[in-house]
């Protein structure tokens, strides 16, 4: 998905749906209340439980001297469970590891791994959490859950409260995106003892409640849930009719037919507005991509089921239908691949910048391929380096048939230090992956595989170079973004890359100046991906076809308004609109980005 980041939800939704504990979805999930209703007096201190004669917290705990221990907590009902457990971890100075969280009335019951932890919690009685005093009791005779014969309303309410707490940590502030990835590792889900996530009841309960709380959801991630079947989430379309972006990344889906339950071929309420789908990391997609022409057949199998998808595994694909349409035929508004202006292989701000870029790249790649230690002279002492691996499979026409693109390449050496921010979520890991300082940069790139860049064939490379101001300095830097390919040695794997340098003038007398380099590198960012060729930046060899003037009244009005707004002449106005499939809004939105690249004759 364009990888929309999922934020943490606020306090929204807690009050909605209260008093609905009898909802059968939640009753089926949880335990039934026993005949006696709520258990526990709620009084703090060392009172005895009626009939057992053993004071709570006393030294003699029948049958609980070792192993898991049940503890009751009063004063926390309605408070965020995740925050409570973090609070308790901090106070006892070690993980509490609470499991089997249940409620009876106002009392929470948890199970902790040992009597030692239970005794530490007991000492906290009287401490305040969210303004309320907490009272802890060790249960010498644990309260049983899930074996009663009552109505189940109390336990269902407990489950509902916990699912609300779960969703509040998984929704973005606007309530438009839900991150339901990795649920089996979520402490709230673990505390419910819900078992395998293949259990459709758990997902059904989550989806039902989420649909009640968040009515405008357009993005959902179900990644990393070990799903081998999509039956547990088959009602996605019914609960979230506006859903446009869905991630099923890194599950265990081995058959494309599993997608049928979300599509028109197997669902009465299919995902008819789906525009982005991520299946990467599932056996079905990985197996398909290893087949001859796998890229094309992979897209075909997905779009047979979801014809409106225009982005697959974060790569653009041409949709067969517009969102909301049920037809699986070709889209009548497919966007032309012809650009409204000539393709140029490279761009430089001026001749001086172009000369610097060409000289730098020739020297850099020669050293990188033959003598990486020699690069030490051209890196600044405080230089920064990062590497990002894009593991998605290229879907261009070229890549679908090229052996180097279809070849399975082991990227483990690069992934080990990759700083792909769509994958690396830990702030500490992101900081660690940013290499700072000349010595650290040289050590890092020395560990990367040996390469050979085909610099003798300049059509295999494209670059863009321009000047930028340097903060708090009178000098300017040059940003140099180069796109190309290299061959690993000795594996002979061919990879595509993008590399962005920030260059500043080499100080007189510096090591860089001594070897004839006009500049030093202050920042170096390298992106690697499977081979995707070089044809996309080659200049067009044939002119675009002549434009037809047989326009509908609507197209004539669209062209008139665009010409008035942009100042383009008739020919270039029509080129622009045809390029964007006669989508006036998109043409106007993107016009400022390419205005400076148009020739003078494009304007009136």
Please tell me about this protein's structure:
α17 (553-566) crosses α18. 33% of the residues are buried. Strands 13, 14, 15, 16, 17, 18, 19 and 20 form an eight-stranded mixed sheet that branches. The protein has helices at residues 24-29, 81-92, 115-122, 153-168, 187-192, 200-213, 236-239, 283-289, 294-305, 351-370, 397-401, 403-406, 412-415, 427-433, 438-446, 511-514, 553-566, 570-579, 584-594, and strands spanning 69-74, 99-104, 107-112, 128-129, 132-133, 135-138, 177-179, 219-221, 245-247, 276-278, 311-312, 315-316, 347-348, 379-390, 435-436, 450-452, 462-469, 476-489, 494-505, 519-530. The longest helix has 20 residues, at 351-370. The chain is built from 19 helices and 20 strands. With 604 residues, the chain is α/β, with parallel strands linked by helices.
